[in-house]
Specification:
113 residues, mainly alpha
Length: 113
């Protein structure tokens, strides 16, 4: 029979040492590294980007995700299809909001010139 875990050490000192290491690893918060100061997320946005660049990239990313959701909606049936179509429609709304913000940004820039 194949076991999921190895046999415990036969030596009680080794067993206690391993147990203390495991306990300290999970329960000792002072040994955990501090998160980086610039943010807690995996990704960051480069400093110095203008609003137009940020909105354009957000719009393009949303269009890509929307295309994925649309493709998936026609590959599946039933309740998962309805969920995917709901996601697609929410993404469409977000894309329209971003495009409206870009239009307003363009008007503001045009008035400044």
């Amino acid at each position: 029979m194949i076991k999921d875990s190895p046999n415990p050490p036969s030596d009680s000192i080794t067993l206690h040492t391993a147990a203390h290491r495991a306990i300290n690893h999970y329960l000792n918060p002072s040994e955990k590294p501090e998160p980086p100061a610039e943010g807690h997320g995996l990704f960051t946005v480069r400093e110095g980007l203008d609003v137009e660049t940020l909105l354009i990239n957000a719009s393009e990313d949303l269009a890509s995700v929307q295309a994925l959701a649309s493709y998936l909606a026609f590959e599946i049936d039933g309740n998962p299809r309805n969920v995917t179509l709901g996601i697609h429609r929410m993404l469409e709304g977000i894309r329209l909001l971003i495009e409206k913000a870009l239009d307003q940004y363009d008007l503001i820039v045009a008035k400044e010139d």
